[in-house]
Amino acid sequence: MTDSKYFSTQRKGEIYELKAELNSDKRERKKEALKKVIASMTVGKDVSQLFPDVINCMQIDNLELKKLVYLYLMNYAKTQPEMAILAVNTFAKDCNDPSPLIRALAVRTMGCIRVEKITEHLCEPLRKCLKDEDPYVRKTAAVCVAKLYDINQQLVFDQGFLDLLKDLLSDSNPMVVANAVAALSEISEQSPQIQVFDLNGPTVNKLLTALNECSEWGQVFILDTIANYPPKDDKDAQSICERITPRLAHANSAVVLSTVKVLMKFLELIDPNSEFVQNLYRKLAPPLVTLLSTEPEIQYVALRNINLIVQKRSDILKNEMKVFFVKYNDPIYVKLEKLDIMIRLTNSNNIAQVLAELKEYATEVDVDFVRKAVRAIGRCAIKVEPAAERCVNTLIDLIQTKVNYVVQEAIVVIKDIFRKYPNKYESIIAILCENLDSLDEPEARASMIWIVGEYAERIDNADELLEGFLDGFKDENNQVQLQLLTAIVKLFLKKPTETQELVTKVLTLVTQETDNPDLRDRGYIYWRLLSTDPKAAKEVVLAEKPLISEETDLLEPTLLDELICHIGSLASVYHKPPNTFVEGRFIMKKKLPFRTGIHHEYEDITTMQTNQQQQQQQVVISSNVGSLIDDFDILGPMSNTSSTTMNTFEHTQQQTSSAIPNLLDDELSSILGLDSNVGGHQTPMMNTNTSLPINRLTTSTGNDLDDLFGDINLHTGPSSISFSSPNTLVLPKEIWVSAQKGKGLEISGTFARRNNQIVMEMDFTNKALQSMNDFALQLNRNSFGLTPLQPLQILNPLFPNQTIPIQLILNANGPIMKMDPLTNLQIAIKNNIDIFYFNCIVPIHILFVHNGEIDKMTFLQTWQDIPENNEIKYQLQNINNLSIDDLQNKLRLNNIHTITRTIIEQKEMLYQTIKLTNGIFILIELKITPGNRTIAFSLKTKVPDVANLIIQAYELILSSN
Amino acid sequence: MIHSLFIINGSGDVFMEKHWKTVVGKSICDYFFEAQSKCANSEDVPPVIATPHHYLINIFRNSLYFVAVLTNEIAPLFVIEFLHRIMDVFEDYFGECTETSLKDNYVIVYELLDEMLDSGLPLATETNILKELIKPPNIFRKVANLVTGDNTNISNTLPSSQLSNIPWRRMGVKYTNNEAYFDLIEEIDAIIDRNGTTIMCEIQGYIDCCVKLSGMPDLTLSFVNPRLLDDVSFHPCVRLKKWESERVLSFIPPDGNFRLISYHIGSQNTISIPIYVKHNIQFREGSNGRFELTVGPKQTMGKTLESVVIECAMPKSVLNCTLTPTQGKSTFDPVKKNLVWDIGKIESNTQNTTRLPSLRGNIVLSTGQPIPESNPILNVRFTLNQIAISGIRVQRVDMHGEKYKPFKGVKYITTVKKGRFQIRT
């Protein structure tokens, strides 16, 4: 008696029979009927008509029956929401059942029913279950929060489930902790803008403790979460690494790979020459190798990741070449990946072995694989110079097999070898020419034509060969046509006497009989060049070509770094950042942490990055809540999609660097052909041309503003500085937008610090003839994350010649983008007439926070921790000849705190601290010689970028009255 | 998270589907079928397939595809491991994981899938726990159910071990005979080139245990030469810290069968291969091709090579082979072009080369076909009992925490996984 009989019920009237059986009095018959219903559901048949009958079975107190009913409910509740309500009572009852199994089952099933009316009733039972005495129920409930979030995010916030879930992170049972982490990760996966985890030292500690005891799946979630934690310093990173390294020996490959991810990320923070790192390298290799003796699917994912790891830290696997040798019965996707990694690991020590393998592969049956193997030989030749000759000989051997696709691939790679080692292997051209007729793929034909054109002077019958190609010109692929044109022009420049006829023929052909604009344009360029200045033509067409690089197919470094942060994820399989393939979702860009002490200039970017994650989240929360930022909609598309546009903005900026070479390549090759990376003088010209539009795009606002600023500086010289309040130094208002630029709107403004808040104070003056309304303001992302606390509110229209003062409180937890100078702030103001963009400088002392005092010991410690070369010295002038007390007071008003004051060698020493809104501390030592107006100023901070700004702030404060 | 699971058989029928969240239409599988149609072999389907709205991650095992549907970014290995785990559990429950066995037990299959994953998060994946929640089918229980009229395979109690710190072991285990068996199995993974030089040789080793001990035994297993093991992965029960510090395996075992440790010995270590094959294969026009193989033992330390099989995938142009073995039997499948020579045992003292098993004869090529350029690859399989080829030996197994004296046994096997020992000719 097996269950397969349930599958055979496919008769007419079956539903009615089932209905009758479900309503039968006998429990056995009911169960049989239910099983049949579930079976039909399993195979995708529609049994939703039976909904009421199945619901009726729910009352019965039998666990198996209950489970079956629940299964059915999960599937069909959505289609019959009205009926599903009937089940609510039973759920509520089950949630109070004495058996934890039933309690858990009930809350679990309720979470799976995506019907709003049921969800409402879920909250109370769920809250109870989250605090249930039985850990089995708690861990089930934790997952249920994630389900609820999927259905109704607002409800989760309103009911405070998120906090209850966070409390579970400290649960005594590791399984509960693991599930809480899993649920939280799922929530943060759905809404990356929300700060789900408070990832700090203690939380991570809790996670690390739970890691040892929870299930393997929980370990994956915990490790993935830890990977997002920014360690405080190298010691912190090192201790976490030490605690998770034993996970490398776990039998579950997902655990292993997640561990690898955390290690790869935290390794960035640790001194690469330390013994610890070397040890870790040794420990990392074996588990990666082990992944390759598992199921092919796991091998595939592992290989894609190893590919990244090898590019980032090739030392880890440098001795493991052999495990990447290909077995003939590996699935093709494994073979291709192994081959790729083999090439990456090739060096002069193992080239012989690799080459022998590759030659072996080139005789296999699988065409794709063979092609790739042949290409690999070429890549070896380019990468390992001493072995180039051996590689070339191998390729020649392969060409002599006359296997069509092998020959074609070989010719394509030989072209690259010629490029890399010019004038070295040209003796083999004759052999290549023998195979001319067998080439039928465009790439191989184009490569062959390139070779003939490039070495036309050594090939006696070059003109005949090219003429042969020319006969079928119109049927050729575009790539081949372009190549052929260039090759013939080259030939003409080398042997002008014999080939005049040929070149005329090809030029006529491409300019008069072709529809392809690229081809035609290139034809015209050549024609013009040849007819006006043959010498120039020679310089352009026969120019020295730049050498091709050794490593091919490398990922761009920033992309690689980002992918390293995504080891083990889909991104690592596709080798693309997640935002390029996860649709409609805002994904936080992950960056590798930087090591302190070496990359000073990056330091603040990383801290900002982490800040940014928090900040951005807040912005979007409020828009989810749907109130605060709604007013911003008046700003039109810009504000609506502010985060995304800025994101893309940043993205384009980032990509410009990588895009330029591509553009250049395309551009060039479309004009001058594959071979025409025309060396020195031509390249920069193309470069500027292609990058120009992008520059214009990104700096357009800046340029206008520069002009504007020039004006302002004329009007308000540095002498006009004055105080408007006894508190923090406030600079007088400057004109930010002149009436001329602002189409009648004049804006002047300044920044102040009042009640420990940053206030942007502006005067709006209407100098036009009509009234203005619909004002809105937006700040671009900036170095310190300044964003308005509230939207700009101007209720009444601004009438002609009216001036209104505006105070806008800013907070410093918005999205961050490094500006140059750091204190630059880009502002957009909109009214009913237009949108105006302008820049202004936020005086840095506005950003000093009041609680920047630290105790003496910490000061001393921090001072010593910051390396000597971060110290910046300067001579300050005490212009107003302030007494030391006055000076101290004045500085204190501006949140520059004096920690201690001593006299050393008859000099007054003041030790002061400043804390910026983003948490950066600056330590200052003032050495004042009595009677001397010059103060020796020295400054230490982990972020030297701000040093000059601080000095300016000091000068400004001291010179003020 | 894992959204849905489709189980697809060799002929492309979706015969089972399970949705953990909302229902995803079967049509999503069309993307999978499209990818499948581009592949020459069933095992060549890429494991990760992107579709406009979902990702499909599939595994191929026992000629079944398990296709998981995901909606968001999740570690693919997580999914792959989980799919394999599902298969493991099915095999454990039904003895095999085939279309028939799944259909025969679809209620249990459904209950299992439901218990293993909750809205995409793995719940209980240890068979020990699952078996307490959902009883596996067996004849005995069916009879008992018939007699008592009770017909349920769901337990009414919560598995006590699920929440303990040792989730892999159930409580209150009792045996009359307490015994623990350890099988140390090593699989050789090698490529030998045509001159007999070893290009690559690695060992994948496992210790598979069958532990039937009452109560909460705490076992310690130590090796004679633990330094050989530097690349290991352990069952979660093994205390990793203890291994790091003392190089002993200390653990409270799961009940029943489980894999304690798997290890990998890489090509840096010199491994002596216990078999050699002399070959002479020449393809010529018509029926003049020659084929000659001789197999012999090498450094087997007095042990007998057992179940020796040599397989050879002939090029397409081979029409037939007429071969005579001196030992065992050979068959040639003219459709699949596959030659199998089942040799059987080779005694280690067979030093006299004339008595070594050999296979000789002619190869017939189809007329008009070109002569193959390269010789075929030989796939060798064999088993060597009572020895682990790497030299690893268990020193002792101790038990603490319980009073009784268990019976302990350790067995060594060296073998070759199909297709992992290749000789190029």
Describe this structure in words.
The complex is a heterodimer of chains A (961) and B (425). With 961 residues, chain A is α+β, with helices and mostly antiparallel strands. In chain A, the strands form three sheets. In chain A, strands 1-2-3-6-5 form a five-stranded antiparallel beta sheet. A five-stranded antiparallel beta sheet of chain A has the order 9-13-12-11-10, with helices on both faces. In chain A, strands 4-7-8 form a three-stranded antiparallel beta sheet, with helices on one face. The longest helix of chain A is centred in the last third of the chain and has 37 residues, at 679-715. Chain A is globular, with a radius of gyration of 36 Å. Chain B has three domains: 2-148, Beta-Lactamase; 179-271 and 387-424, Immunoglobulin-like; 275-385, Sandwich (Immunoglobulin-like). Chain B is α+β, with helices and mostly antiparallel strands. In chain B, a hairpin with a 2-residue loop joins strand 4 (55-61) and strand 5. In chain B, strands 11-13-9-8-23-21-16-19-18 form a nine-stranded mixed beta sheet, with no helix packed on it. In chain B, strands 2-1-5-4-3 form a five-stranded antiparallel beta sheet. A four-stranded antiparallel beta sheet of chain B has the order 14-15-20-17, with no helix packed on it. Chain B is globular. Chain B contains seven helices and 23 strands. At the A-B interface, helix 2, helix 4, helix 7, helix 9 and helix 12 of A face strand 2, strand 4, helix 2, helix 3 and helix 4 of B. Chain B: It is found in: Cytoplasmic vesicle membrane; Golgi apparatus. Chain B: It comes from Rotaria sordida. Chain B: It is a peripheral membrane protein. Chain B: This is MHD domain-containing protein.
Distinctive features:
heterodimer, A: 961 residues, alpha+beta, Immunoglobulin-like, TATA-Binding Protein, five-stranded antiparallel sheet, 39 helices, 54% helix, B: 425 residues, Beta-Lactamase, 3 domains, nine-stranded mixed sheet, 7 helices, 23 strands, 16% helix, 41% strand, transport (chain B), MHD (chain B), cytoplasmic vesicle (chain B)
